């Protein structure tokens, strides 16, 4: 029988078909593998680019945060300088109204306005130190325009002042403002003042910035101790601390791990002021804020010989508010020994109002007890000043007693207006205290 040719071709066709299918599958596999490799490469490249993008984004965010923080700090400083500049302009207006345009010394007015204008320009250019210097240079001229005789000494924001006499050179310290944590100015005649800068460039590690209040200084040998209050980061309350320096203008250094006093059960402690008794023993007076139904109170306690810490033991309460004019508040104590008599000067009432005033009490000793005088305060709002407070008593190089204090200008009471530095002479006659403009 003759062979069928179609039967012979079938294996060949089958084999060819298998080869084609296998070839197609291999080709498909190769293409698929190639695609997979390319896809994996693309994924890896995408992941790498994403990592780079995340790094760049994080860097950009950090730079934006740093730039924002710097911008906010600059804006805050500019706002503070602008506030002081506005306050200076308002003072010029008030002075003009008080003494009359016919009596104005045009040259003095030009000097004052020139200093204020320079301060504004410096602030706008970001030169904050230049603005402070311009304000300082204009202070004498601006002060001369005050015709009220109220005792204006430094016509710019200088709250809670403390004046220290060092061999006839006077250093005045004040609560934080545009000049830093503790601003300091200097004078050789109690008339012309020059800005020194920031007495406390760095706060204690436990303290929050922005609330360094009521500074005061005690000299112990060749060391000066600066007392101040600040907010403790762990409690949120005002507490007292001590910083030291080898010269009166500082810089003062405070590396303390904890405050020297912090009456948490009394709402915190502030307004520290040192006092040296007749026997040379140092003491510290201060205010407790009041809490839990307890009123604000004034306290005293003995210091260690170097003045950097309190002697262990309880503090002595000196005074609580009991007079109607005090409005339930006493603060800012400062004790002095005059003619064998211990006198305690203090502020009372709400600090941001025209009702703020200064009183004086007599004490049996540096730890009290103290007796408040009945009747009106020693110094209250009057022509040329409103809401006086923050008393600081010091002796000049002739032995005369002076009272330094801050006050608002009439009609410009409360923030954002400034509290300027004033000086009055103190006279004590038969135990009675009076002030001379």
Explained architecture:
The protein has a domain at 152-436: Glycosyl hydrolase domain, family 43 (Tachylectin-2, Chain A), CATH 2.115.10. Helices cover 30% and strands 32% of the residues. The protein has three helices and 20 strands. The strands form five sheets. Strands 1, 17, 18, 19 and 20 form a five-stranded antiparallel beta sheet that branches. A hairpin with a 2-residue loop joins strand 19 and strand 20. Helix 1 packs antiparallel against helix 2 (106-124).
Secondary structure elements and their pairing?
Blueprint (H helix, E strand, L loop, with lengths): L4 H95 L6 H19 L3 H17 L7 E3 L7 E5 L2 E6 L8 E5 L6 E5 L8 E14 L2 E10 L5 E8 L23 E8 L5 E7 L8 E6 L13 E4 L10 E9 L2 E8 L8 E7 L6 E3 L13 E10 L5 E8 L11 E10 L2 E5 L1
Antiparallel strand pairs: 1-19, 2-3, 3-4, 4-5, 6-7, 7-8, 9-10, 10-11, 11-12, 13-14, 14-15, 15-16, 17-18, 18-19, 19-20
